[in-house]
Fold this protein.
Amino acid sequence: MDKKTELIIDKLHSDRSLTEEEYAYLIEHRDEESTCRLASLAVAAREQVYGRDVFIRGLIEISNYCKNDCFYCGIRRSNKDCERYRLGEDEILRCCEEGYDLGFRTFVLQGGEDAFYTDERLCGIIRTIKERFPECAVTLSLGERSKESYRRLYEAGADRYLLRHETADEKHYASLHPSELTLENRMRCLKDLQEIGYQTGCGFMVGSPGQTVKELAKDLRWIETFKPAMCGIGPFIPHKATRYADMKPGSVELTCYLLSVIRLIQPNILLPATTALATLDDKGQEKGILAGANVIMPNLSPMEARSKYRLYDNKAYSGTEAAQNVEDLKRRMEEIGYKVVTNRGDIKGN
């Protein structure tokens, strides 16, 4: 680790803020020593807020229909080989019931932008979940909607909303999406969600097509100013039915490095060790936790749905990725000195 890297890490630790140029330098000069230093500081920062607790969320993938045609995504509307499905209210509630019995106190309803799930239908589902499981949080990850739609869902009882910004660079965003999708609207959605009162989550892929250190630095600086409640980052993994089928996956090591950086930017942030980490590395989620993450989202979806919700190739959905194997997940976390806890796991502090 050179002297400049050391000084930048010290500045990040003390100020929780860097310039884009400093973030870029930190990434460009990543080595074993700087990785260990950042992880050590990130773990200490997380422990001051959350101790060694790991929060679990029950992921329910409600639909793989999507009106969008994002160039990197396996459920894009132009993928004619994607076997489509959607879950009805009864199926979603059965997932929640099973998850509750397993100890989950947050349910994450995730899906493509599927017009079947109108505000009226979603509000009914959310209200029923909250009535049956009043101590549980409901997180939504259902893409871009109007501010009024977000408000209705919030008033029905939704607590959190995850919407990855994908990239804070307009040109890079345009290279990943068709022209009808814009970074301006994505940022509008995130601002609306925060203003309404959601615990709002953003995020990006590490190693996405066309991404450079400059884009990553811009993402980190934007996260610093936006101050999300959650941030989901994971290595890019290609899907065979997209234009990026032959691209190499993103780096697990760089993803963990950036998790440490984000933890130091905002010590109270909720940081998942994502399924993408587990897909590329059997110990990927442990590595994420040891880098500063504190959330894992096992899958509660019906098995048939899990096999069809393929945003990328070879997506992990069994083993510790299956909610039914939560005891194995607890054991794996205990082996590295952490404890899976049964509570909502809300963000602490400002």
About this structure: The mean pLDDT is 96.
